[in-house]
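If you are new to this repository, start here. Below is one unmodified record pulled from the training split, so you can see the exact layout before writing a loader.
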Amino acid sequence: MKMGKMRKVLSVASEMVPLVKTGGLADVVGALPGALAGQGWEMRVMIPAYRGVLKSLKASKAVWKSPDLYGAPARLMQGKVGGTVVLALDAPHLYDRAGGPYSDGGIDFVDNAERFAALCHVAAEVAGAGIAGWKPEIVHAHDWQTGLVPWYLRDSGIPTVITVHNIAFQGRFAREKLAAMALKPADFERDGVEFWGDISTLKAGLMAADAITTVSPRYADELMRPVFGMGLEGVMQLRARDLHGILNGIDTTIWDPEVDPNIQPFSSGSLTGKEKNRNALEGEFNLDVKGPLAILISRLTDQKGIDLIAPAIEPFLAAGGGLAVLGSGDRWAEAAMLDLATRYPGQVGVKIGYDETLSHRMFGGGDAVLVPSRFEPCGLTQLYGLRYGCLPVVAAVGGLADTVIGASPATQAAKAATGVVFHPVDALALQQGLLKLVALYEDRAQWRAMVRRAMKQDWGWAQSASRYGALYDTLISNAD
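And here is the target side for that same chain:
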């Protein structure tokens, strides 16, 4: 795209780094505006003003007001975070509450249908009428929370895109919520918002958007099959010609082992700092490991394959390997990891919770990162691992398969391997993958070559942003 007048995009989401985050969605929403700016696109982001969000906005001012948005006054506050213009929907009766964006103590808020329908309504109004002298040419919605934006705009002539970050979350609400979500009885049909007797806001977006993206090419293919589509595979098949898999990127300024303030710096040309980081990491987790030190940084849930680790890991530990775990999640999964630490002192260390700076130290000092997910739309963990020479051991699903080149006779001969890829997703395959990791580690020259190769991969946002920009350009041209 030729540089000139900036094209305008409104991105609508429920999360955005650094304002609010529960997962990878927030990273993507926060990174895209900056990545697209260099390619001629001005992207503004609209999110709910959860508790504390407004305090983080610089030079904020009200640019829209309503005396009654779902029962009480609301306003849209425009400000900046970094170089990104943010439109925060300030409706205290909907968003200013304790807990996370969607729930408190693991229990979903009972008015989530109204909370996110309100966000979608205001986004559609901004898209149609513009705001404070700014009017988007295209709208980009993210996941179920904003699935009603394309639905509300379907007859407006304004092109829309929806990105599926994780199809497991579908925005399902009872049919009785139709009126509360400004939906008509006629909308509740097979080609509309109806999904197995409920409303699905994600399905609404998938049916109405001009284009659908997912966060990796492999995940786009997987979503058309029942094992991954989770009931929406028929919709994905119907929209196959409009479905695009675009890999997520990572912020290579934050994740840079050469200047990372949390670790001893190192590079693909000089790995001395990585060796020092490993020694420090072993001390931090009370480990004494002779073989490869694997790390696990994850939500501890079934989706992430946590139940596979305990039955797979004993031969790896017996061969001299070690494991450092950082994460939280389901109680059974936390208990399983803590039990491993009890059974294998000095070889397995566990810290329940999440600590961003510790995660940097773990990537900086770990030899390998485990990502045994049953499904993984894109995954950022393996990208951080590649960047830090912490070789990924991944299941052959979604973005994991798209980004890690598994070690095999062919890839080793071609000097292309960057990690270990296992299939199927079960404990036996993971066990064999871990033993392959040990064998690779024992050939020190080969191991160092793989580490350097992994670190030289470019997983920044430039290429992915270019694909988004090309898609936007096509949709805008088609709409003219």
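Two things worth knowing about this chain: The longest strand covers residues 58-66. The two ends are 17 Å apart (CA to CA).
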